[in-house]
TrEMBL record:
<dbReference type="InterPro" id="IPR020904">
    <property type="entry name" value="Sc_DH/Rdtase_CS"/>
</dbReference>
<dbReference type="InterPro" id="IPR002347">
    <property type="entry name" value="SDR_fam"/>
</dbReference>
<dbReference type="Pfam" id="PF00106">
    <property type="entry name" value="adh_short"/>
</dbReference>
<protein>
    <recommendedName>
        <fullName>NADP-dependent 3-hydroxy acid dehydrogenase YdfG</fullName>
        <ecNumber>1.1.1.298</ecNumber>
        <ecNumber>1.1.1.381</ecNumber>
    </recommendedName>
</protein>
<keyword id="KW-0560">Oxidoreductase</keyword>
<comment type="function">
    <text>NADP-dependent dehydrogenase with broad substrate specificity acting on 3-hydroxy acids. Catalyzes the NADP-dependent oxidation of L-allo-threonine to L-2-amino-3-keto-butyrate, which is spontaneously decarboxylated into aminoacetone. Also acts on D-threonine, L-serine, D-serine, D-3-hydroxyisobutyrate, L-3-hydroxyisobutyrate, D-glycerate and L-glycerate. Able to catalyze the reduction of the malonic semialdehyde to 3-hydroxypropionic acid.</text>
</comment>
<dbReference type="InterPro" id="IPR036291">
    <property type="entry name" value="NAD(P)-bd_dom_sf"/>
</dbReference>
<comment type="similarity">
    <text>Belongs to the short-chain dehydrogenases/reductases (SDR) family.</text>
</comment>
């Protein structure tokens, strides 16, 4: 049995991956979806032609990883693709965010870094030649960001982890792609707080376009998927210019 597993499938980019996977990978027998909001996952299941198996659980807790692992052990499927999309951010200085909720940034690190790593480790034994791992990093991974410091750091982790893991798995024929979008019009900003800058609003992308580009890049075994000219420019700027300069520009126009 060939399956794909998608975390963060109840909204935004994760949900869009599930929708488009059906068209990109017609040979899939099942898609396993993970998020806390079960009713959203059930809605998604109803609209899909492919069988969707729902795992409703909090990836900050251990139970859902055990449930996925048990199911993998029982069914012994071939995991053709893992999409790690579950994640969140919070706009604000480190001390402001901590004052509002002292655990929030620690939870962010837990989900964005530990959760993504744990789900990858759970799935890896069931992956084989040609399987893909797709990790949702962000353009925020390219350079530190004041006013979004913990989030940007978690996404740098995701980018670095994806590259290192990709190098480890190359000989096994398992390909890892880090997806690094700029702002995308999802519920992300309801959680993080408003994007609130003209610059961000002007480059806001649609989930459909970002995911379509990502799946094309995944097909081509690209290490990185960066959607749109603006974010390609941001990636180049972060490579070529001192980060202190990029950070100043971001502070002036970015938020
Ligand atoms: N939108 C943007 O501008 C960008 C987003 N990204 C990244 O893309 C990924 C997807 O974000 P996006 O789709 O935009 O945002 P959404 O807020 O729309 O989706 C986030 C998803 O993560 C799930 N999630 C959140 N917390 C948990 C948890 N504790 N356990 C299980 N699932 C959880 C949510 O499901 P539920 O609440 O039901 O649990 C939801 O399905 C994130 O990693 C984000 O950092 C990267 C660049 C840009
Ligand atoms: N890229 C977005 C988050 O990851 C943002 O710029 O807010």
């Amino acid at each position: 049995m060939r399956i794909a597993i998608v975390t963060g499938a109840s909204s935004g980019l994760g949900r869009e991956f599930v929708r488009q996977l059906e068209h990109f990978y017609r040979e899939l027998d099942e898609i396993w979806v993970i998020a806390r909001r079960e009713e959203r996952l059930v809605e998604l299941k109803k609209e899909m032609k492919t069988y969707v198996r729902v795992f409703a659980g909090d990836m900050e807790q251990s139970l859902v990883y055990k449930q996925v692992k048990n199911r993998l052990e029982n069914q012994n499927p071939d995991v053709r693709m893992l999409v790690n999309a579950a994640g969140f951010g919070k706009i604000g200085t480190v001390s402001d965010v901590a004052q509002e909720d002292k655990n929030l940034q620690l939870r962010m690190i837990d989900l964005n870094c530990r959760g993504l790593t744990e789900m990858t480790c759970v799935c890896l034994p069931w992956m084989s030649r040609g399987s893909r791992i797709v990790n949702l990093a962000s353009a925020a991974a390219f350079c530190p960001q004041s006013g979004f410091a913990v989030y940007a750091a978690t996404k740098s982790y995701v980018l670095s982890f994806s590259r290192g893991l990709g190098a480890e798995l190359k000989d096994k024929g398992i390909w890892v792609t880090a997806v690094c979008p700029g702002p995308v019009d999802t519920e992300f900003f309801q959680v993080s707080g408003s994007a609130g800058s003209l610059m961000k609003e002007s480059v806001m992308a649609e989930p459909y376009d970002v995911v379509r580009q990502a799946l094309l890049d995944v097909r081509e075994k690209k290490e990185l998927s960066v959607y749109g000219a603006a974010m390609k420019g941001a990636e180049a700027a972060a490579k070529l210019l001192p980060h202190s300069l990029v950070m100043k520009a971001m502070e002036k126009w970015g938020r």
